[in-house]
């Protein structure tokens, strides 16, 4: 769903609430205040919607051409070509040329294709149904606005300006103090994400589509591991003190969720409104926030309110588990390039029908070179929740 569509849905939901309050009487001050708040929200959405529509219109012809070519990219055909050592053709060759990839390389944009894997069951035949896919964790990389720029070769440097120019209002003939420009430069070197499958020729012959399913699972596993590195790897957002800790010593209640995870994170610099705040929780915190009500007789739940006042709430399987009834939540402030996860080239597929040939087995290895680095910690906030 595009940002424009998300805003349109929010506006529609707000208008629906407003329509339900058209009959409010003039003396009912509480309901009148709520109605005015809804009117103000719709007015705020209008400016955001115009900006989103303009961003959609600014899409270049080059990006539209790339979308057309990548839409014709046949993933299965690529895998077959790699296994049979055939040269690519058609849209596959166009995409590989566009990205400067080898004939056995998969563009990283294709990482989120359909994924599936299964071993050969004991009873297969003409009545075989569609292969049921393995379930990978939902990716939050795009939700957190963490780009993966493609690095052709060599180490990669990401400079960040860290000094704020001191602006002033000097009187006539007086000098304004100058600020020395200061930069940090993170030099990133590639690390390897690698996964392999092997299967027998007999199993492949007995079950249709087994090879394709295993190959797609390799692809899904690589994407899932990159997401894990972003969240909890050595340089991940929720690892150690890569981000400052904000621990709590009492149960997180309704007002704590709304303030600590919502309104208090709007700082006017990284986040200008609640819409600039996005939350990634573990499943336990998500469930706990869904159990916290404003008061005993209210229908107002903390999780629902957070979903309304922020840019969204997601659950990730890569959030570290609850410890001592406590779990951290990652809060994203804005959408600037505050973290990067560059990749070198694409996903390289290495077929091997020789090593285990005596056993009648085929090995396929997928390799992705990557790095992960937080460039500006101010674009993220780590907040602990306590459940009991």
Features:
388 residues; alpha+beta; 5-stranded mixed β-sheet; 4-stranded mixed β-sheet; globular
Characterise this structure.
With 388 residues, this protein is an alpha+beta fold. It is built from ten helices and 13 strands. The strands form four sheets. Strands 1, 2, 5, 10 and 11 form a five-stranded mixed β-sheet that branches. A hairpin with an 8-residue loop joins strand 10 (343-352) and strand 11.
- Please indicate the percent range of residues in DSSP E strands (runs of 2 or more): 15-25%
CA(first)-CA(last) distance: 36 Å
Task: Quickly count the helices.
Answer: 10
Strand tally is 13
Largest sheet: 5 strands, mixed
SS content category = alpha+beta
Low-confidence stretches: 112-136
What overall geometry do the principal axes of the alpha carbons give?
Answer: globular
- Rounded to an integer in angstroms, the radius of gyration calculated over CA atoms is 26 Å
Following the backbone from N to C, one meets helices and strands in this order, namely HHHHHEEEEEHHHEHHEEEEEEE
Average pLDDT over all residues: 77
Share of helical residues: 25-40%
